[in-house]
Amino acid sequence: MLADITECLPDTDLLLFSDFNYGCLPGELIERLGEACKKHGVIMAADSQASSQLADISRFRDMKLITPTEIEARLALKERTAGLVVVGEKLRKLSRAENIVITLGAEGLLVHAPKSGQFVTDRLPALNTAPRDVAGAGDSLFTCASLAMCAGGDIWQASLLGAVAAACQVGRVGNTPLSGNEIKGEIERFM
Ligand SMILES: Nc1ncnc2c1ncn2[C@@H]1O[C@H](COP(=O)(O)OP(=O)(O)OP(=O)(O)O)[C@@H](O)[C@H]1O
Ligand SMILES: [Mg+2]
User: What is the bridge-based pairing of β-strands 109-115 and 99-103?
Assistant: First the structure.
């Protein structure tokens, strides 16, 4: 995997780690890919699923963006009681991520990111109040927000676009790929 991915990096803008924690991404592979990405100026972002299996989003260091759920963020920190703002701060220090989006299901998301020389936290509600099937919500948010950052958007624009993508995804049955036009259509409905 290291050889195959490294070969692609000269023509790559963005590398997404979507870790389901079944053993495909050992620490050494992540580290070496991270070094190679830095060398080629490739942006990295990561998401790490915890469900039946244990997960640790903080294994992904120096990412442009990480998008754990609240449970995944708390698992990485072994933090059960602190408020979400503190969870965001602690996770930033541990993972050294530049931007953190903690997803909160039907409650939307929390952004913890740099703004004018300090770190700020802000909330965005879920944009679809009548979801039909939540499968793929987190994946859509992660992918769309990362692409937005890669295209030069800031974390606030990226989070909003990610939330729009998640809103589209939960509005239909099945976890199927979203098109740019669907996301555009959704934005036009708001305007
Ligand atoms: N029940 C819901 N109603 C409305 N929006 C939702 C709902 N669940 C998820 N979303 C949207 O999707 C985003 C990501 O969802 P969530 O926090 O459930 O991530 P996740 O658990 O990683 O999802 P996945 O199962 O795809 O990994 C939320 O921030 C919200 O915008
Ligand atoms: Mg997820």
Answer: antiparallel
